[in-house]
Amino acid sequence: MTELVYLVVGLLLGGGAGFFAERAIRGRAFKTRDDIITDAQRDADNLRKQAELDAKEVILKRREELERELNAEREELRSHEKHLDKRENDLEELQKDISKKERMLESMQNKLAERTKLFEARERELERILKNEQDQLFQISGLDQQQATSMLLDRLERKLVTETGAIILRKEAELKQNSEKLAREIVGMAIQRYASAHTSETTVSTIDIPSDEMKGRIIGREGRNIRAFEKATGVDVIVDDTPGVVVVSAFDSVRRETAKQSLNKLIQDGRIHPARIDEVVAETQKEMDAFIRRQGIEAALEAGVPNLHEKLLDLMGRLYFRTSYSQNVLRHSIEVAHLTGLMAEQLGLNGTLARRCGFLHDIGKAADHEMEGGHPAVGAELLKKYGEGVEVVHAARGHHDDIRVDHIYTVIVAAADACSASRPGARRETLEKYVKRLEELEALAIGFPGVEQAFAVQAGREVRVVVNPNQLGDREAAKLARDLATSIEETMTYPGEVKVTVLREMKAVEFAR
């Protein structure tokens, strides 16, 4: 029983203690909550106050900035106002000046009007005086107005004719001098700007062979190999006693070159018989055609001449194997093209057309052995056939002055052709031919009656003849020069032209003793 009582008392005491403990904990929790709420309210008040302060600072700064901007705009407006005031003052001054000038102009106009009236009155008075004097002159001279006018006009006309003739002669002399100077400058400039070096190539028609035994193989049994070769190439093969050499002869330089290359191939191959000959010659001809076409295309590009017909390119390529007094005709054509283009551009003409005329002027030399006529006529026919223009055709036909010149480009081509052919180093001859030509010139001149001495000078381009003044007069000397020039044209072969100069001088000497 006692234990039960103790148990109940203990339970009661434990429950009371738990109740009071829970009440104490709840009290402390409520107190902490109130503190937190109070602190939060205080912090919120502080943040709000700080935000208000920050906002006020921002507003103050913005207000200061706006005030500064407003002050700047006020200053700018004040500056504009000052500038406008100044402009207004300037305009007022200008208006005053204009008004002043207007008044001055009006005054000057009035003065001019008064002086004009005065001049008109004086002019009328002068006309009246002149008319009176004219009437008095008519009465004194006994002539009417028409007769006097006619006399004065005749006198004036005679005077003008004299003065006009003198002016015309002076201007003609000046024009001739200036034109000669300009022509020399144009030609000299063209030659200076295009002074290409010429390599005078000699067409070789001899072929070296390794041994004389090869001559028998070239001839073949009963001559069948050499006949087959000559038939296939169209050349003549000369096999003589000259050691180590076989000669190929043909008028056509392209055929001669084809035969030379073919025979060299056969000699290197060692197989020489008719079938092999035909095969090698056909192969070489194809290679030669391609080489000729390539030479024509390269030459046209170098000369600046586009859009040429394929046949014209082939013909120009053939000129690679043609020489004139050891001057390669293809190189000569390229040089003439450049010279004509330069001179034409200096004269204000079409340089492209001029280069075309100069490039194609000697194309007839590529076919003059196939067609009848000289190379100018042959070239003109070919160019006309393949659609070239009138200027190009006429330049080819007339560049040697064989016809009347109708186009300025023909004259330019003739000048460029002469420059290219006659300049030093362009053409050469052997010493024997050169000396022989000089001797022939001198001998031909000595053969004329009345000639005492003859000298070939300037590389045979001029012959100077000294005549006996007792036998020949001035007229006979002039006739001798013409006869000698005609004889040279008919009997001699020479490049360019030969100038004939006849010298006649009479001297009378006496001594006073």
Blueprint (SSEs and pairs):
Elements: H1 2-141, H2 145-193, E1 206-208, H3 213-219, H4 224-233, E2 236-238, E3 245-249, H5 253-269, H6 274-303, H7 310-318, E4 323-324, E5 327-328, H8 329-346, H9 351-360, H10 375-385, H11 390-398, H12 408-422, H13 431-446, E6 451-457, E7 462-467, H14 474-491, E8 499-503
Parallel strand pairs: 7-8
Antiparallel strand pairs: 1-3, 2-3, 4-5, 6-7
Helix pairs in contact: 2-8, 4-6, 5-6, 6-7, 6-8, 8-9, 8-12, 9-11, 9-12, 10-11, 11-12
Which runs of at least 5 residues are low in confidence (pLDDT < 50)? 192-204
- Structural class from helices and strands? mainly alpha
State the total count of DSSP E strands: 8
What is the average per-residue confidence, as pLDDT, rounded to a whole number? Answer: 80
Distance between the termini: 212 Å
Q: What is the N-to-C order of secondary-structure elements (H for helix, E for strand)?
A: HHEHHEEHHHEEHHHHHHEEHE
The whole-angstrom Rg is 57 Å
Give helix % range.
Answer: 55-70%
Q: How are the strands ordered across the major sheet?
A: 1-3-2
Short recap of the structure:
The protein is mainly alpha-helical and 513 residues long. The chain has 14 helices and eight strands. Mean pLDDT is 80; it is low at 192-204.
Please describe what this structure looks like.
- The chain has 513 residues and is mainly alpha-helical.
- Among the domains are: 206-422, no CATH class; 431-503, K homology (KH) domain (GMP Synthetase, Chain A, domain 3, 2-Layer Sandwich), CATH 3.30.300.20.
- Helix content is 70%, strand content 6%.
- It is built from 14 helices and eight strands.
- It has helices at 2-141, 145-193, 213-219, 224-233, 253-269, 274-303, 310-318, 329-346, 351-360, 375-385, 390-398, 408-422, 431-446, 474-491, and strands at 206-208, 236-238, 245-249, 323-324, 327-328, 451-457, 462-467, 499-503.
- The protein has a three-stranded antiparallel beta sheet, covered by helices on one side. Strands 6-7-8 form a three-stranded mixed beta sheet, covered by helices on one side.
- A hairpin with a 4-residue loop joins strand 6 and strand 7 (462-467).
- Helix 2 runs antiparallel to helix 8 (329-346), helix 9 crosses helix 11 (390-398) and helix 9 packs across helix 12.
